[in-house]
């Protein structure tokens, strides 16, 4: 049971009463009459064959308030796209699948790449970006939720709580971030958030002072959660990273574009478990190792835009400060785990911190070596300015795939 304490500079909406989901869904149906509600599902084809997504689709068939579901499908050939059409056909809501590897969307993507206004890297960021574009093109939804497709503990209450803050017309929130505890199989999970993001933010505070941005980022209880919701009005201007810095980048963009009283976070699940990434201690091109580098660079880039100067000595100080704070937090997490009858391997926690400390330096070196790096995908406003009919062409590409193969 969560408490009602408000910390930091954005609103936290708790789960205080275990309100019945049917009661929330009834209200959401009423909200949807004035403010149509939509959902984005960025998915790999492999997730259709896993244990999580079939249950998610079954849960969504019971959701009465969604006006539209947009599925971004990555790494799928024609046969797999055809299978995906059948897989999602049980959804009673209006839905469309973006076949990101299909010839229609690839042709449009190639034109945008030639103009320098398309994502250059494959991955979740690119998938989400095209889904956002389709949402703008379809113009069916005013408030939109987004969540991952690998949540093995998914229940439809998660979606109801996630979208409620931006759906309720009496609330003024433009963006809402989901949070939850990361507990599964008697263990405390969420290593990157616990052991990298939190101590890194607090070390940056020690180096640069209590900046509003750092206070804002440290307010989020689970900043790396892949679940958030937003009003459609925020979509045109948002620039998102195409790498593992997606969640940090989205939070940074919301801070840049909105007053903090228009942003909130909400408790969406008691138990949350999903696909776990390998630590990849010996390979900084994949797993949690690459993730930690991308996340660190995302934070450094944001501080640089605020006029903060970095050099090699700065990053050495950040690393040393981070290392001490992170090691102290391991004891805190260990005690918390024991108090709750959970397991936490201190040795593996310290190994992760050692790797993250090294990767903070790697991220810093990369930042200094390539100051002209453009990690953000252009905003849809810029793309529309360069290609005025892009949304119509995107919609037509998706509809033609659907008409041809459905």
From TrEMBL:
InterPro entries per the UniProt record, alphabetical: Nucleotide-diphossugar_trans
Q: Which GO terms describe its molecular function?
A: transferase activity
Q: What is this protein called?
A: Cell wall biosynthesis glycosyltransferase
**Organism of origin:** Simiduia agarivorans (strain DSM 21679 / JCM 13881 / BCRC 17597 / SA1)
């Amino acid at each position: 049971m969560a408490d009602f304490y408000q910390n930091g500079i954005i609103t936290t909406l708790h789960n205080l009463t275990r309100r019945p989901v049917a009661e929330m869904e009834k209200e959401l149906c009423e909200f949807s009459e004035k403010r149509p509600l939509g959902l984005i599902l960025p998915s790999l084809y492999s997730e259709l064959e896993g244990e999580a997504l079939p249950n998610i689709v079954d849960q969504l068939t019971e959701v009465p308030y969604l006006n539209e579901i947009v599925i971004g499908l990555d790494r799928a050939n024609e046969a797999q796209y055809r299978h995906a059409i059948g897989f999602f056909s049980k959804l009673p809501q209006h839905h469309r699948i973006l076949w990101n590897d299909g010839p229609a969307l690839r042709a449009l993507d190639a034109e945008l790449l030639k103009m320098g206004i398309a994502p250059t890297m494959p991955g979740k960021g690119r998938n989400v970006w095209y889904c956002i574009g389709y949402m703008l093109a379809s113009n069916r939804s005013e408030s939109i939720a987004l969540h991952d497709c690998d949540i093995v503990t998914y229940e439809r209450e998660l979606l109801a709580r996630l979208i409620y803050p931006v759906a309720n017309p009496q609330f003024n929130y433009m963006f809402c971030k989901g949070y939850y505890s990361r507990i599964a199989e008697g263990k405390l999970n969420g290593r990157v958030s616990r052991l990298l993001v939190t101590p890194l933010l607090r070390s940056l505070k020690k180096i640069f002072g209590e900046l509003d941005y750092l206070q804002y980022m440290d307010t989020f209880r689970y900043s790396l959660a892949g679940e958030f919701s937003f009003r459609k009005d925020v979509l045109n201007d948002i620039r998102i990273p195409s790498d593992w810095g997606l969640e940090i980048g989205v939070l940074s963009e919301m801070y840049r574009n909105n007053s903090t009283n228009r942003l909130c976070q909400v408790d969406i699940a008691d138990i949350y478990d999903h696909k776990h990434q390998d630590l990849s201690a010996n390979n900084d091109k994949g797993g949690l190792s690459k993730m930690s580098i991308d996340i660190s660079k995302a934070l450094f880039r944001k501080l640089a835009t605020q006029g903060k100067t970095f050099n090699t000595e700065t990053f050495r100080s950040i690393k040393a400060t981070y290392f001490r704070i992170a090691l102290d937090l391991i004891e805190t997490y260990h005690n918390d785990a024991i108090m709750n009858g959970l397991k936490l391997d201190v040795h593996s926690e310290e190994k992760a911190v050692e790797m993250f400390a090294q990767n903070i330096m790697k991220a810093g070196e990369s930042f200094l070596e390539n100051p002209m790096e453009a990690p953000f995908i252009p905003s849809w406003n810029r793309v529309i300015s360069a290609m005025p009919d892009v949304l119509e062409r995107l919609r037509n590409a998706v509809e033609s795939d659907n008409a041809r193969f459905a």
